[in-house]
TrEMBL record:
Lineage: Bacteria, Bacillati, Actinomycetota, Actinomycetes, Pseudonocardiales
Keywords: ATP-binding, Nucleotide-binding, Transcription, Transcription regulation
Organism superkingdom: Bacteria
Protein name in the entry: Helix-turn-helix domain-containing protein
Signal peptide interval: none
InterPro entries in UniProt: AAA_lid_NorR (IPR058031), GAF-like_dom_sf (IPR029016), Homeodomain-like_sf (IPR009057), HTH_Fis (IPR002197), P-loop_NTPase (IPR027417), Sigma_54_int (IPR002078), Sigma_54_int_dom_CS (IPR025944)
Gene3D superfamilies according to UniProt: 1.10.8.60, 3.30.450.40, Homeodomain-like (1.10.10.60), P-loop containing nucleotide triphosphate hydrolases (3.40.50.300)
Domain Sigma-54 factor interaction intervals: 409-470
Length: 555
């Protein structure tokens, strides 16, 4: 065939690097039932119906995809085209990312965020080469973010250069409808707030698209950083939420979150029914990520208990282990660097003459079997106390597990994504440490930080804050000041703990495979196309896992 256009050639290169087979068929099952009540669907419905009337009798199909590149609405000018498209996987609810469907004017438009035509042989998958299509992105006029793709598809024999202007006007109409919908959402949020304000005995906050309303009690109690923390409570939770939250002041409150509709929700705050200690306010208190664990840390240190500290990278395993070890004689050993060479690792620093002392082994899951066995014997012989750190999977079966069995206490550290409501306060405290009081995050920037997954946890967050603090000496820090890759605002994730558990399992597998999706699919026992689909649905970036730690910001 002729030389590919640059944007098509780049798409093909992306697909070759991820291992998609051009002869593969689009995996059509299971598809996800889509929600007709989203702002995009409500705005697009009347526009698609009008276009469908214009296309009546023609062999064209209109395809609407949401911002996750899932097909949410398909209209046909002629019924004869419907089974043809269904046979190649163009069905409502199907994820249509490039990793699943190759180069086409839905997936590639979502990647490039601009309109593009893909005709015949330019499609990467053989099954799509008989089609011609043109797609344009839809941008949310309220937030400026990518909202979806509108596509028109036909057989190559019916392709026309008039497809582009036909779609551009329609995409603008949908965007205008989304703006009107947002204004309607504001009205609904205001009405719900007024109704709740009459009965609310305490602080009340209402959130809508780019809108925050508070009563006097909430205005006196809440700081801007608290707004971002409360908004994070809705991340991944479509229904009512009742949970305890900690405010920037140190006060703990019971929050009742009720959805309003159109993306809005109400938050009522009240004192918890049981008395709760209020921690001291200020930057140092905001930074105390382990406040909930501190009573246990102090108790285990006083009891001189043997403790195994578990957690993902960046969750503060080293910090907590050092606190557990205390100020007495401590020998620190890095599991990844321990080697057996002549005389095995000595424990002289642990004051063997007097006995006792603490052996702190970081990354104990990386200990060589012979070293683990030797350390176990030394610990038993000298009466040394143990504090170990390891990954979330604990210690591997064998000598390392036997060594770790000497720790009856296990302390698992929380991930940052499991405490999104505390990210704004922590980010603000870290910024004050690095830049003093001359700069501050806007509420929008804090909300964006709270929505990020933070695979590198506390270390990643501190790195990003340090990056931002070094680039500006005064003023407000907005989303635009965040490093590339951290500026995308809150998304609508698949809700529930199973979503997070599956994502964590796939990320760990990809990390162990160096980002190689073919090997990861084999190890997980699923097909490559299924893995590609789940990678997109779960917002995973395999290239970041292949090339660099996901938490390192890029200039």
């Amino acid at each position: 065939m002729s030389v590919l256009r640059p944007e098509i050639a780049q798409s093909w290169q992306r697909l070759e690097s991820c291992g998609l087979d051009p002869a593969a068929c689009i995996d059509v099952g299971p598809v996800v039932e889509t929600d007709p009540g989203t702002r995009l669907r409500r705005a697009a419905g009347p526009v698609l119906t009008a276009l469908e009337g214009h296309l009546h009798g023609s062999r064209f199909a209109l395809v609407l995809a949401d911002r996750e590149t899932r097909l949410v609405d398909i209209r046909f000018g002629s019924p004869e085209l419907e089974p043809v498209l269904q046979s190649v996987g163009v069905v409502p609810g199907q994820l249509f990312t490039e990793q699943v469907s190759g180069t086409n004017s839905v997936a590639t438009v979502a990647e490039l965020r601009r309109g593009i035509a893909v005709v015949g042989a330019e499609h990467y998958l053989e099954s799509l080469k008989r089609f011609a299509c043109y797609g344009v992105p839809i941008r949310d006029p309220l937030t400026g973010r990518h909202a979806g793709v509108l596509d028109i598809t036909c057989l190559t024999a019916d392709a026309s250069p008039l497809l582009r202007p036909f779609l551009l006007g329609a995409a603008q109409q949908i965007a205008d409808g989304m703006l009107a919908e947002a204004r309607g959402s504001h009205r609904r949020v205001l009405a719900a707030f007024e109704a709740a304000r009459v009965r609310a005995a305490g602080p009340l906050v209402a959130f809508g698209p780019d809108l925050v309303l508070t009563n006097d009690a909430a205005a006196d109690l809440l700081q801007p950083v608290d707004h971002a923390g409360l908004q994070a409570l809705r991340h991944g939770r479509p229904g009512p939420v009742r949970t305890e939250v900690e405010l920037a002041s140190g006060a703990r409150m019971l929050a009742r979150v009720e959805p309003v509709g159109g993306g809005g929700f109400l938050v009522e705050l009240e004192r918890p029914p049981r008395p709760t200690a209020v921690r001291a306010a200020g930057p140092a208190a905001d930074r105390d990520w382990f406040a909930d664990l501190r009573p246990r840390i102090l108790r285990y240190r006083a009891e001189q208990a043997n403790v195994l500290v578990l957690g993902e990278p960046g969750t503060g395993r080293t910090t907590v282990a050092a606190e557990l070890a205390g100020a007495g004689p401590v020998t620190v050993l890095a599991g990844a660097q321990a080697t057996v060479a002549g005389t095995l690792v000595p424990l002289a620093e642990a004051d063997p003459a007097a006995g006792g002392g603490t052996l702190l082994v970081e990354d104990a899951h990386l200990l060589a079997p012979a070293v683990a066995a030797h350390l176990g014997r030394e610990v038993d012989r000298r009466g040394v106390r143990l504090v170990l750190t390891a990954g979330v999977d604990g210690l591997p079966v064998g000598e390392a597990a036997a060594f770790g069995a000497r720790c009856p206490v296990r302390l698992e550290l929380p991930t940052v994504r499991s405490r999104r409501d505390r990210v704004p306060a922590l980010a603000g405290a870290l910024l004050r440490e690095r830049a003093g009081g001359t700069v501050r995050f806007t509420t929008g920037a804090l909300r964006t930080l709270a929505a990020h997954d933070w695979p590198g946890n506390l270390r990643e967050l501190a790195t990003v804050v340090g990056y931002v603090a070094g680039r500006r000496s005064a003023g407000d820090l907005t989303e635009a000041d965040l490093p590339p890759g951290y500026r995308e605002g809150p998304r609508e994730p698949v809700p529930g703990a199973l979503w997070q558990a599956e994502r964590d399992a796939i990320v760990r597998c990809l990390e162990s495979c160096g980002g190689n999706k073919v090997h990861a699919a084999r190890r997980l026992g699923i097909s490559r196309t299924t893995l590609y689909r789940r990678i997109r649905e779960l917002h995973i970036d395999p290239e970041a896992l292949r090339e660099r730690p996901a938490w390192v910001p890029q200039a």
